[in-house]
Design brief:
By secondary structure, the chain is mainly alpha-helical. Helices cover 78% and strands 0% of the residues.
Length: 176
């Protein structure tokens, strides 16, 4: 099973790099639709918290190196923290704590945003990135990213439900 998880994790990292590229090619902004978030959240649900964390850590770094998106400074560190927490928390809440899909998704999104906020706060106050304002980051992230948040809340539970039925497993999406 470890090999299957590594392969699926690599596939989700690839999607996390490819999907934002497609969005940018057709001028659909990443900050609005949050296309990198979906594969990372799926990794948490399907593979568990550890692999979800790794997919969230690796995806924005590879994307930044290959495409320049997100920009290495200041956005990459923020996204690494945010997405790593998305993958970790969704995997833990769903696979270990056994919360339902929607509650796991909402709580992981809140934790990821909180981690992003804390990263912006540290970068602005301790590291001297004066152009970063944590409160503006939260407001802009929530308002600008609202379409992406809605898409995630609809698409991820729906996809996981379809996968659950197709895998003939009642309520388990993991590959355990």
């Amino acid at each position: 099973m470890k090999t299957k998880k590594i392969v699926l994790g690599g596939f989700l990292v690839g999607l996390g790099v490819l999907i934002p590229m497609i969005f940018h090619m057709v001028n659909m902004g990443g900050p609005v639709f949050l296309p990198m978030h979906i594969p990372v959240l799926l990794a948490g649900f399907l593979l568990g918290g550890e692999y979800g964390f790794l997919v969230g850590l690796i995806t924005p770094i590879i994307s930044s190196i290959i495409t320049g998106m997100p920009p290495m400074i200041p956005v990459l560190p923020i996204m690494v923290v945010e997405l790593s927490l998305y993958g970790l928390i969704s995997g833990i809440l769903f696979n270990r704590v056994k919360l339902n899909t929607l509650m796991s998704l909402i709580l992981s999104m809140i934790c990821g945003r909180a981690g992003g906020f804390l990263t912006v706060y540290i970068m602005a106050n301790a590291l001297g990135f004066k152009k970063l304002n944590p409160m503006i980051w939260i407001k802009t992230g929530l308002v600008t990213g609202l379409p992406g948040i809605v898409i995630q809340l609809i698409f991820i539970p729906t996809l996981l439900h379809i996968l659950s039925k197709s895998l003939k497993k009642d309520s388990v999406y993991s590959l355990k």
